[in-house]
Amino acid sequence: MKFVISMHINPAVLDALTDDEKAAIGEGHGKFIQNLKDRGELILTQALVDPSQAAVVRIRNSQPVVTDGPFLEAKEYLGGFYLIDVEDKARALELAAQIPDAAIDGLGVEVRQVMFSDGQLEA
Prior knowledge:
Elements: E1 2-9, H1 11-15, H2 19-39, E2 42-47, E3 55-60, E4 63-68, E5 77-85, H3 89-96, E6 108-113, E7 116-117, E8 120-121
Antiparallel strand pairs: 1-5, 1-6, 2-5, 3-4, 7-8
């Protein structure tokens, strides 16, 4: 079963962390990634740039209109994700609990099963 584990970031929470705490998050993700690779559970992981660097595309009067910035004005944003392939939801939840962000108040880790992938409905 495929799941997306997404990390939701609050810049104010990250800014309040010490340099050592920030380094520990990075090191924790490195260990987590290696563990997933060793078990053959990692499909893909991506970290995203700050939403201030995003562009939003909308079609208006049959023409694309591009605006700078995030789609939504919010204090939290999607910071990155892991796409994993595991035996069941229980394993996905177990893995999500190992992500360093899950232990920090004000940050969140969300687990969602993949419904559609590569033109096929997932089982």
